[in-house]
Structure to design on (741 residues):
């Protein structure tokens, strides 16, 4: 069955996601041939002469599918990528993994500014709804890649460039509707160039969806505004964007029995009576968070070879997740202690003959943070050599606190009683220097040196209550080097070595005393571009020490728990093709085959510490593939079918069959019709997307945990295993229309 699925996957799939004509232009080095907007990201992006593995995606590529789903879902069909959706339909909380590494190790920048949260190191695309509508180009570098701003890339780096300058004025209105009461409305505009160089543009978006999972609703609002000035030597951009999200929590998943009987069930917000009968669900068990970004970029071309770049950023985020803590559930199932007065930092009181020490309650756990960044860049380019210097200075301040907003039996307590509070401060300074030099005919050498200095402090209490104190400093040196050889016109072979270090995140500190991670990444690849084919294949060897691997377990707010392991390794081969089969048919397959192993893993089972030797790394499938064949009979109509295959993966590191996520093979159908009336409306585009057309029942994510039972049988310890799953939607659709004026 698996071989049949793979054969079908490799030869009979069709799609729109990467629907683009191959870009076969050779990249030239002189800055006089590159637009100022492209130069803005020269320092951190790779090109065909870079000895790193990467894929480029443009606005045109994702436009046919941009009907409301989050950006990770739109990138699902890139090589080595696996995406997840808590609500099951791609709207709300979504995640991305690359080469088996989770989102906390995927470096994300927006216009060169780090987007990863400084403390958790995660990326929360739900805070920027419909951001894909304001993205011009995307580059995904797999592996360590080249030095960039922010935390190191341990699986990939994802670099986004927002809207390019539009020379002509326009306005557009996009509306889409789909399964699970999903709606999206987007308004975009641009003034075009006015007053010899000024341009103003913007976007307003609203997305609503009930989600595939019960009550996993999303209410999302977003905005994006940009003002630019450009002349022959200067580009200045001021960008303001942000969003507000209210999503019903869906991060607990379901167990294996419920998965078979009621796939859409959501445990969040359950309310029980004193006998354990579920009465109803709390209707405001939500995340409620807003995020505001303010960016300023100045790019100055000094002459035909030199330019400098300055970037400034301020980000403010504020919000909470609200939770009903049910007394019966806490005392019989959850055992979190969230209903106890000790947890809530309340004094017990006497009511009649009874001492009250716990209560059902509703809490809000808040995060209020500020992030300040300055980036600097200096670039020098000629036909023979290019030099990129870059630096970053940042400061993050995050206030974490919890408020008690209701309780059934609390005694004398003030409204909004605060039961924990702590503050995290993270400061970073980094500098990189990159040089690419022609060393002989056909050979280009690449050297990239980066220094990162990080200071992280936390003081106060976390929920529990428990003191939480961190005072850690890191100084990392991350060298990289490589060689590219031009075999023939349009053909290049490259080899590179990169070292990366990465600091632990906040959750790691909450769960112990973690060590920083270390990675040595070797990449060997070949790229070819002709009039009919673009191809890239590469082999990678990633050797880790103290890798913070996912254990499979999650904490009280659904964040993954990680632990250091001694030595681990990822070894793989990736292949990506773009082929013109004839004038109407295009095929774009990719496949990633890998081995992902802990090399010397220890686990305590039934009270006895065992050396399990080599085990599979959690959430690391050995095969991931995507394919795209599209039919384009004219510039007015396109149709295609996307396919994705993800092999079996373990959710833990002990190779337990109880931790298995089964392989899945999913197909989406996409069609686009375009009209150009040439009257009041310059263009009308209708898009239709059917996700999972064969109605495959599958789970793309889950969690796995173990605990020791030492009370059932006196004197005996028994290790118990458990798992949860996040079901994804069966067949569903989205359709939308865009009017451009």
């Amino acid at each position: 069955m698996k071989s049949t699925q793979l054969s079908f996957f490799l030869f009979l799939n069709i799609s729109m996601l990467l629907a683009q004509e191959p870009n076969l232009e050779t990249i030239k080095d002189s800055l006089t041939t590159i637009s100022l907007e492209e130069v803005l990201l020269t320092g951190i992006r790779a090109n065909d002469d870079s000895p790193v593995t990467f894929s480029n995606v443009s606005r045109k590529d994702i436009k046919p599918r941009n009907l409301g789903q989050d950006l990770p879902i739109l990138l699902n069909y890139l090589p080595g990528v696996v995406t997840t959706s808590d609500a099951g339909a791609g709207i709300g909380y979504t995640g991305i993994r690359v080469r088996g590494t989770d989102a906390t190790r995927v470096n994300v920048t927006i216009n060169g500014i780090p987007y990863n949260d400084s403390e958790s190191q995660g990326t929360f695309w739900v805070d920027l709804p419909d951001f894909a509508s304001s993205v011009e180009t995307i580059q995904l570098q797999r592996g360590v890649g080249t030095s960039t701003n922010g935390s190191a890339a341990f699986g990939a780096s994802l670099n986004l460039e927002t809207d390019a300058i539009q020379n002509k004025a326009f306005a557009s209105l996009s509306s889409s509707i789909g399964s699970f009461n999903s709606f999206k409305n987007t308004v975009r505009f641009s003034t075009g160039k006015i007053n010899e160089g000024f341009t103003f543009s913007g976007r307003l978006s609203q997305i609503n969806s009930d989600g595939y999972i019960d009550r996993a609703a999303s209410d999302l609002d977003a905005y994006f505004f940009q003002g630019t000035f450009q002349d022959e030597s200067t580009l200045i951009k001021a960008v303001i964007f942000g969003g507000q999200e209210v999503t019903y929590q869906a991060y607990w998943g379901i167990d294996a029995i419920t998965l078979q009987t009621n796939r859409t069930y959501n445990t969040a917000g359950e309310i029980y009576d004193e006998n354990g009968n579920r009465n109803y669900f709390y209707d405001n068990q939500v995340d409620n968070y807003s995020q505001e970004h303010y960016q300023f970029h100045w790019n100055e071309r000094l002459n035909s070879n030199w330019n400098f770049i300055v970037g400034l950023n301020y980000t403010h985020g504020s919000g909470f997740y609200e939770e009903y803590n049910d007394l019966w559930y806490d005392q019989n199932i959850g055992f979190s202690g969230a209903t106890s007065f000790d947890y809530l930092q309340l004094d017990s009181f006497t009511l009649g003959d009874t001492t009250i020490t716990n209560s059902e309650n509703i809490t809000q756990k808040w995060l209020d943070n500020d992030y300040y960044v300055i980036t600097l860049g200096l670039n020098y380019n000629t036909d023979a050599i290019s030099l990129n210097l870059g630096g970053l200075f940042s400061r993050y301040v995050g206030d974490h606190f919890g408020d008690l907003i209701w309780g059934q039996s609390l005694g004398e307590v003030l409204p909004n009683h605060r039961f924990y509070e702590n503050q995290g401060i993270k400061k970073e300074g980094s500098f990189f220097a990159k040089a690419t030099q022609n060393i002989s005919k056909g050979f280009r050498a690449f050297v990239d040196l980066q220094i990162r200095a990080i200071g992280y402090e936390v003081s106060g209490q976390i929920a529990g209550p428990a003191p939480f104190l961190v005072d850690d400093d890191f100084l990392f040196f991350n060298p990289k080097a490589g060689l590219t050889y031009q075999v023939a016109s349009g053909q290049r072979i490259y080899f590179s070595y990169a070292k990366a270090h990465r600091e632990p995140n906040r959750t790691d500190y909450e769960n112990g005393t973690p060590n920083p991670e270390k990675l040595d990444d070797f990449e060997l690849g070949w790229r070819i571009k002709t009039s009919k084919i673009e191809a890239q294949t590469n082999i990678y060897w990633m050797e880790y020490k103290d890798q913070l691997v996912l254990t499979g377990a999650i904490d009280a707010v659904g964040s993954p728990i990680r632990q250091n392991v001694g030595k681990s390794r990822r070894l793989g081969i990736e292949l990506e093709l773009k082929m013109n089969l004839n004038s109407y048919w295009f095929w774009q397959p990719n496949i990633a085959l890998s081995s992902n192993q802990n090399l010397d893993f220890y686990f305590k089972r039934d009270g006895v510490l065992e050396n399990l030797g080599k085990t599979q790394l959690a959430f690391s499938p050995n095969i991931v593939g995507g394919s795209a064949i599209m039919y384009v009979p004219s510039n007015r109509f396109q149709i295609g079918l996307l396919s994705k295959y993800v092999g079996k993966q373990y959710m833990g590191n002990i190779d337990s069959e109880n931790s298995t996520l089964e392989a899945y093979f999913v197909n989406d159908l996409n069609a686009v019709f375009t009209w150009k009336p040439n009257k009041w409306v310059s263009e009308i585009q209708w898009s239709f997307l059917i996700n999972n057309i064969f109605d495959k029942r599958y789970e793309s994510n889950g969690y796995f945990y173990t605990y020791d039972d030492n009370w059932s049988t006196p004197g005996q310890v028994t290790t118990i295993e458990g798992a949860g799953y996040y079901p994804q939607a069966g067949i569903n659709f989205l359709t939308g229309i865009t009017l451009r004026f």
User: Anything to note?
Assistant: The first strand starts at residue 53 and ends at 58.
